[in-house]
Structure to design on (378 residues):
């Protein structure tokens, strides 16, 4: 058992654990044949809304499309400033740009890696002072499984009349102040990309909101802007629906999800216990429960990270870098950045390293990963 290969994400082991329930769900869809907006989509929407305590859930085609639909519903576009952290996945910045709005990159907190509220205030004031863009929205990203500071974010947004969008793609299942994410912002977008904590067998996503009007708009926008019937076109929308087959897979996986979240947390605690004396282990957001999409350690510098990466490779332990480059330094986005320096995001990119974390990792495997990190540090 201790020689079993360690995988960064192990969908095969999860599948073995969840069969025959998964195949039964998939077979039911093959039998009824309602591949687009079949009954599993509505069943999943109800189950997810109940799971996170949101009033409404709308299943969509991906996390990226969830962000896009939420912003289309607010008519965010040219001349609008959308504030977002520079240390996140590309989709967070891509969506405002696709809608021809302007992303305004904000630095992150050096301890929790979540959006820095002090810097957000300064960025909003800077845009106001320049006067060329309208501050319209803030996208808070719940990075690596932990929640952003939503009470702080919504207070700032209220002062400046900004729409709040929670990019919860990595953190569905996480809680802040005893409440699951899903109703912390005006809208919450999540992703069911296979490697996310709740992952499908292909692309998928969902939007959550407390507003019935917003939920109705999201349903219309995900189906070409349709109205009462499919041939009423009320607005420009998109083809952004969640597949019935993906909903079926997610219904099967949702049953196991609470136990999987607990297992992820136990693995994180075990890594902490083994590694806290040697590297910087993840700082916890106060009064929160992480979904542990990613367990990222911080090494003292780039050279040490290179050495640890090489040491892990030699011992057949997978690892990954999220993110090797902050978004304002990406070739596609550099011309959309106003040149403000974002030193924390830049520093993290050079020395962060993510270790394997998934619910089928055994304690012995966690120890092998930790031993490999410690050995590589010498
Ligand atoms: C994965 C991810 C997305 C995009 O989700 P997709 O389903 O792949 O489109 C958006 N934002 C963040 C922070 C992500 O990690």
């Amino acid at each position: 058992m201790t020689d079993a290969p360690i995988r960064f994400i192990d969908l095969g082991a999860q599948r073995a654990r969840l069969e025959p329930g998964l195949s039964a769900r998939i077979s039911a869809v093959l039998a009824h044949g309602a591949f687009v907006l079949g009954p599993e989509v509505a069943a999943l929407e109800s189950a997810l809304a109940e799971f996170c305590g949101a009033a409404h859930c709308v299943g969509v085609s991906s996390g990226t499309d969830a962000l896009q639909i939420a912003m289309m519903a607010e008519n965010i576009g040219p001349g609008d400033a959308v504030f977002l952290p520079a240390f996140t996945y590309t989709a967070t910045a891509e969506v405002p740009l696709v809608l021809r709005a302007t992303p305004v990159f904000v630095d992150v907190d050096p301890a929790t890696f979540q959006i820095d509220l002090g810097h957000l205030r300064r960025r909003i004031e800077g845009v106001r002072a320049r006067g060329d863009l309208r501050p319209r929205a803030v996208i808070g990203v719940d990075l690596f499984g932990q929640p952003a500071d939503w009470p702080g974010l919504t207070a700032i947004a209220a002062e400046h009349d900004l729409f709040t969008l929670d990019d919860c793609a990595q953190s569905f299942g996480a809680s802040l102040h005893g409440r699951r994410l899903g109703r912390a912002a005006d809208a919450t977008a999540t992703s069911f990309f296979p490697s996310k904590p709740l992952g499908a067998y292909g692309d998928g996503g969902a939007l959550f909101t407390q507003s019935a009007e917003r939920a109705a708009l999201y349903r219309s926008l995900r189906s070409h802007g349709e109205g009462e019937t499919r041939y009423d076109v009320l607005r420009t929308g998109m083809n952004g629906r969640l597949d019935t087959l993906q909903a079926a897979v997610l219904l099967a996986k949702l049953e196991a999800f609470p136990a999987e979240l607990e297992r992820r947390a136990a693995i994180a605690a075990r890594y902490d216990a083994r590694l806290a004396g040697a590297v910087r282990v993840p700082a916890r957001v106060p009064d929160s429960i992480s979904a542990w999409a990613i367990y990222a350690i911080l090494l003292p510098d780039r050279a040490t990270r290179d050495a640890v990466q090489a040491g892990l490779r030699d011992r057949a332990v997978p690892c990954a870098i999220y993110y090797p480059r902050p978004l304002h330094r990406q070739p596609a986005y550099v011309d959309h950045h106003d040149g403000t320096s974002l030193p924390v995001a830049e520093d993290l990119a050079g020395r962060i390293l993510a270790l394997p974390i998934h619910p089928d990792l055994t304690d012995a495997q966690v120890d092998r990963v930790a031993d490999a990190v410690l050995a590589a540090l010498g």
Q: What stands out?
A: The chain has two domains: 11-252, 257-377. The chain has a mean pLDDT of 97. The pocket of pyridoxal-5'-phosphate is lined by residues 62-64, 88-89, 91-92, 141, 167, 169-170, 191, 193, 203, 205 (CB under 6 Å).
